[in-house]
Description:
This protein is mainly alpha-helical. Helices cover 73% and strands 0% of the residues.
Amino acid sequence: MGYLILKNYKPQVVLAAAGIFLMMCGVWLGFGGVLDPTKSSGYLIVDIYNEILRMLSNRIAGLGLSIMAVGGYARYMERIGASRAMVSLLSRPLKLIRSPYIILSATYVIGQIMAQFITSASGLGMLLMVTLFPTLVSLGVSRLSAVAVIATTMSIEWGILETNSIFAAQVAGMKIATYFFHYQLPVASCVIISVAISHFFVQRAFDKKDKNINHEQAEQKALDNVPPLYYAILPVMPLILMLGSLFLAHVGLMQSELHLVVVMLLSLTVTMFVEFFRKHNLRETMDDVQAFFDGMGTQFANVVTLVVAGEIFAKGLTTIGTVDAVIRGAEHSGLGGIGVMIIMALVIAICAIVMGSGNAPFMSFASLIPNIAAGLHVPAVVMIMPMH
């Protein structure tokens, strides 16, 4: 399986096929059945596909819909230019700083803030290259240092709107807002500050070492078709609505906080009105909304299918007794939950480096965590956070 993924075979197909094969092996070797005996059809292949149907139904209606809604809104923000407005607004204060390596570190922090709302790594990187890369180079920072900082702005996948965060929260059995504010934000803040400080010293040291590097000026380009700067609030609107609903629920003015999908749909509706009152063109406004649905489809094809494939693979591992073996091994070796957590985090990190993507390994192993955590008597979130 690892060989096929390394050779750039579609991970969804590889994981699903491996999971089906493992489920069949588990039954043939006598480890157990795929379904509860009371729900079994009596035919192994039918039971396997009934289990896949259950996974698809559960994921698409719950986690999958949240991921698709977030992806759709992000695509819509790109279509109407709100992402460009946000980058243009947030990059302005940086241009007032004259110290090259302070602005270099600040670029990383600002990039991480932007990554909360511009969830496309390539999209954010392109916007930063157009806006901040020329500024950094003009201040005397080498091109390599400038690119290094911009390239690492999406190295931390965090935030309410980030698909792996939504998936991790689901695996941990909690709402995304709870996962983000209580667990992810404190850890991510420490990491961001540490990396920003490291960039200051490391990039400065490398630039001093490469004294002969060519510091020619980069061409300063303006973002094309930037809408009014008040559009910068639109990518932030889901977070504002989420925080607002949390506050209202806390003071008793709402029964509970808003569901993530409801937040995205409300934000979409408000943005549609903003677009219409700006353009006074109903047809164009409605045509642009198609980007929302296109984004949902892209997320389904690339992310939701990977989540389901990872769950199929995890079910296969469970069927052949992998979870029980991990729990027994941890108990006998004295590793405990923390030891298993470190090992699994290292496995995912190595796989991510080798494969060039962390999605496939994370979603493959994350589905195992609830059962492993329960067997080791530790909270699932304690194990899922380092893996994420």
